[in-house]
Write a structure and sequence with these properties.
The protein is of the alpha+beta class. 23% of the residues lie in helices and 32% in strands. It has 12 helices and 30 strands.
């Protein structure tokens, strides 16, 4: 089984990478992934802008992580009364930050950050407006616009994202990264914003291919079957698939994007963007859906047939607002949200949905990735749960195959592990833990929650209205 792991770096959302001081210069961001498969061979790839774009590749520590640096003040600089909030913000501990601001008066910046993470655009804009108006060229204003740009990106509102990037360049006019990022978003903005044209309940079948769920989709009136991938920043398809659908291409400026697989090597290639005028899933309709167009030779397209070589990314899946899959092979979207009494257990980090899980009464943060065939645990898990690794049944090396080659990663295998999330106790057997760094955006999570666990329940519901994942 092989899962698609193509993630486009869209935003400039600040992330403080472990091991960096809080006063290093503006911007470090990113994300990438490795997904595992039963043959001990994994595949992962990430599309990233080049060094001249607003996301770039750093050479530090041989890890070749993708980051966007940011000049943060030290906690003491913003007052001891908010130092704990700043610490939570820097570590992207969104669930803890949400709880910390619940019953106290705090600066609007932190309320805006939480609103962004939990999908409340109106609240985020209101809170960030006060931050920006009070100090238009401050670091916090820059970071506020960063987070808004990422929110707009994951909802397909590229014109709005471009506006935020333009304002970021007012703060940092010589930032080559943001200048190149503006070029990318200018391409995405050649079409109108993505909009929902018909928001109706739909029930349709799904089937598994290469270990991932595929659903019937109509693109500009042509029937295809595409993967559901909550871990993909963009919807994507290969070049021959785009031609099959009769889509119009828009070239991304040369050098604006660079592809990097999980092996960490670099390769240059050209990418384009295609805009689908109409995308229909059941009776649910969207217009102006952007697809990243990649070469036919990339995995996983070589394992799929024409009409299957595409994936619906987060901007489309978020537009559904609610979706549910059952073990009888049915997939439902557009049903009424059930307002939860309990707190949300899903948030966003950048464009990646994150779910709170529990292992032996300890909380974990797992990237929620329907595009990963199998769940795996990261180096963060290995560090924080080191005592569990003593029970490992197998130490070894896992081959991680990417577009640019392959990489061998140290890993341990535990016989089994029981994880609780969404009100369900799932059995991860075996439980594979990667011991090497892959990418800071993914290593920040305790692991990736893949289709193998997301499909264990009789029925699984992902509700972006209430930001809840529930299994029954």
């Amino acid at each position: 089984m092989r899962s698609i792991r193509v993630l486009l770096m869209l935003g400039v959302l600040f992330r403080l990478i472990s091991g960096m001081s809080s006063n290093e210069s503006f911007g470090k961001l990113r994300r990438c992934e490795t997904s595992s498969e039963s043959s001990a061979v994994t595949w992962a790839s990430t599309l990233i802008p080049s060094r001249d774009s607003f996301l770039f590749q750093t050479e530090k520590k041989q890890a070749k992580t993708l980051v966007v640096t940011s000049n943060l003040r030290k906690s003491g600089d913003i007052g001891d009364e908010t130092s704990d909030l700043e610490s939570l913000y820097k570590s992207r501990a969104w669930f803890e930050l949400r709880d910390a601001i619940r019953s106290r008066k705090v600066p609007g910046f932190y309320r805006g950050a939480v609103a962004c993470a939990f999908g409340n655009l109106q609240e985020a804009r209101e809170q960030f407006r006060s931050v920006i108006e009070s100090a238009p060229k401050s670091e916090k204003a820059y970071q506020s616009r960063n987070m808004l740009a990422y929110f707009y990106s994951r909802t397909g509102q590229y014109h709005h994202a471009l506006e935020e990037i333009n304002q970021m360049l007012v703060i940092m006019p010589d930032n080559a990264s943001d200048q190149a990022g503006r070029k990318l978003y200018a391409v995405l903005s050649q079409s109108s914003e993505q909009v929902v044209t018909r928001q109706r309940f739909s029930r349709l079948p799904y089937e598994l291919k290469i270990g991932n769920p595929f659903i019937p989709v109509s693109v500009n009136g042509k029937s295809v079957k595409y993967m559901l991938d909550t871990g993909a920043n963009f919807s994507i398809l290969c070049e021959s698939e785009a031609k099959l659908l009769g889509l119009t291409f828009h070239d991304v400026p040369v050098g604006a994007l660079r592809i990097q697989g999980s092996s960490g090597a670099r390769s240059e290639t050209s990418y384009r963007v295609a805009i689908a005028e109409e995308v229909t899933v059941g009776t649910f309709g969207l217009r102006n859906v952007a697809f990243l167009v990649t070469p036919d030779e990339q995995e996983p397209w070589t394992d799929l047939q024409p009409g299957e070589r595409g994936a619906l990314g987060i901007s489309v899946l978020y537009a559904f607002r609610t979706m549910r899959w059952s073990n009888d092979g049915t997939f439902e979207i557009g049903f009424a949200s059930k307002r939860q009494v309990q707190k949300s257990n899903v948030c966003f980090q950048d464009s990646f949905p994150v779910v709170q899980a529990v292992l032996s009464k300890r909380k974990l943060e797992l990237g929620l990735d329907t595009g990963a065939a199998e769940t795996h645990l990261s180096i963060r898990f290995a560090k924080e749960f080191a005592e569990l690794l003593n029970d490992a049944s197998q130490n070894g090396i896992r081959d991680v195959h990417g577009i640019d080659g392959n990489r061998r990663i140290e890993a341990v295998t535990l016989q089994e592990m029981r994880l609780q999330f969404g009100g369900f106790m799932a059995l991860l057997r075996p439980a594979r833990v990667l011991l090497n760094k892959t990418n800071p955006g993914i290593d920040h999570f305790h692991g990736l929650l893949g289709w193998d666990l997301l499909s264990q329940a009789r029925r699984t519901t992902l509700d972006f209205e209430s930001m809840m994942l529930s299994l029954e």
